[in-house]
Amino acid sequence: MKTLFTCFIILLGMTGKSQFFTWTEPVPLTDSVHNNTNCSIQVGDPMISPNPDYAVWESSSDTLSIAIFGRNLETMEDPFPILSQPGVHFRNPKRVPVFDGNVLFYLFYETDINGNWDIYYVEYLMDGTVTEPVQVCATQADERNFQFSDGVVVWQSDDQIVTQEYDLWSGFPPGSQPEVLDSVDCQYPVFSGYYCAWEKVVSNISQVWFASREYVSGQWIWSSPMLIDSTG
Fold first, then answer.
1. Please, which of 52, 117, 121, 176 could form a disulfide with 108 given CB 3.0 to 4.6 Å?
2. Distance, CA of 216 to chain centre
3. What is the pTM of this model?
């Protein structure tokens, strides 16, 4: 009986403590001098990757074109510019963690360095340097709103939603072309690996559409676009 009572007291003590994750008090991540927007945080699993977690975001001011800054979320050292060039704009950063001893993460972004918006990426290395930019999507169209998950990229090309397989080390498969998921007045795709949703304007009404991706007969197939919401 004494043993049962002791176990009851221990269990009562355990249940008296929070068994859930809790949030800390908010901590300022950016300064109050620049306009800081569009933050990207993609936290890796510390049991898989020992690399520290970083936040990346757009930063601009009266004297600074849109640049991409970063900050180590573990050390909270001062924010630092990752991509910045006078007269050139860098936006929509997407941080993709990798499991490489010399590379902390891949940074995908949009830039108007060639006059229209194209999508590039750089590798952010352990020593704090970045590699030469690599073109992902650079055409005569405006390429924007890039999404990456499970070896597939989805992005907005002018007002179309397009997708293509993409390997971080070898790029697009040889001879492959983007597949159009939807066209005309489409924007802001959101992609999870198996589902893609986007906004579409039909008769001046904003609608939400989506398509799903499944493995059929040895290849990945996208469904036809389906309407989610048309309330406007």
1. 121
2. 27
3. 0.75
